[in-house]
Predict the 3D structure of the following.
Amino acid sequence: MYQALYRKWRPRTFDDVAGQEHVTETLKRQVALERLSHAYLFVGTRGTGKTSCAKILARAVNCESPADGNPCNECPSCRGIENNSILDVLELDAASNNRVDDVRALLDEVVYTPASVKKRVYIIDEVHMMTPQAFSALLQMLEEPPEHLVFILATTEVHKVPATIVSRCQHFSFKRIPADVAAARLTKIARAEGFILEDEAAGLLARLAEGSMRDALSLLDQCSTGGDIGRERVLSVLGLAGESRAVRIVSAALDGDAPLALKTLDEVYSAGGDMTAVVGELSRLTRDCLVTKLMPRGGEGLLSGGYDADMIDALSRKASGERLYACLDALARCAQDISRGLGGKLASELCVIKLCE
Ligand SMILES: [Zn+2]
C-alpha cells in the first residue's frame, strides 16, 4: 500500500525535526540531564512538528539508551512505543475524545505505575477541544502529578486553553518552518525517494506550504507521479499554470470589467472549481500584486512564487496600493463568509463585484 510521504518521513529523532531547534535542543538537554517536566504544552500552527516532537519525547523519556537526548529507536521500549504495543504511552485526540467520561477514565488510570516502561506518557492533541469538565479533571492531575507521569498537550489555539492549565505546563512555541529549511528537506526526501526535485520547484512548494512541513510533503506527493520535478510540473499539477483563470478574473476586476470577471468566475464554477480554493488563489495573486507594488525591488522572496514575475508586475500597475489592499480585505471577508456557510458561488460573485468597484 502506498504510504503518504509525510507519514513515511515523519521525523524519528529530535535531530530530524526541521526548523524547530529552539524546541528540540531544549528537550534534548532535559532528557540528557533527566530534568523533565510533568507537563508540556506544544503550541503552533498545523504541520509544524508538534505531534512528531511529542512522539519523540515519549520515546526519549523511556528509552533504555538515549543518545544525546534522542531516543535510540531500537530498544524494546522505543520499538514498543512506536508500534503502539506499550499501553503506558497513549495518544488521544481531544477533538474526538472530549467527553468528560473519557478523560475521567484516563485519569483513573494515571495513579498506577507504568507496566513496562519508566514513565506513563499521555499525549493530548488539540487539547483546546476538551470540555470545561474535562479541563477541571485534567487540572486536578496537573496540580499533584504522580512521579511517573508526563503529560504532553498540543494545540493550535492556545487562547482556548484555560490559564490555570497553561500556567502548570512548560510552554514551547513551534514556529512556521522557514521556506529555505522546508525546501532543503523536500530536496533531501526527493533524492532518497529516487527522483530529482529542482531547486526552483522545491522553493515554490515550500512557499506554497506556508510554513507547514506536512502541507509541503502533501504537495510534493501530488506532484510526484514518477520522474523528476521542475517548476513547470509544479505549476501545471497544482493548476497554477500560465495565464490561469484566476489571473483573468483579477485582471478584469482591476480594469473594472465586471461582466468579464463574472463570466470567468462562472467558467471556473462550471468546470467544478472549488470556490474556497478559487478565493484562496485570488487572495494569493492579489497579495503578490500588493507586495510587488510596495516593494518593486527586493520583494521577490515574499512572493508566493506561483506566478510569473512580469505578469504580476503588469497586474500591479493596474491599481493603487490602497485599491489592492481593499481587494485583499474583501477576499479575506469572502473566505470567512464561505467558511461560515454562505453559499460559495454567491459569496464569491458578490466579492468579485466588489473587486471591480
Ligand atoms: Zn531506545
Notes: Residues 63-65, 71-72, 74-75, 77-78 surround zinc ion (CB under 6 Å). Residues 253 and 356 are 4 Å apart (CA to CA).
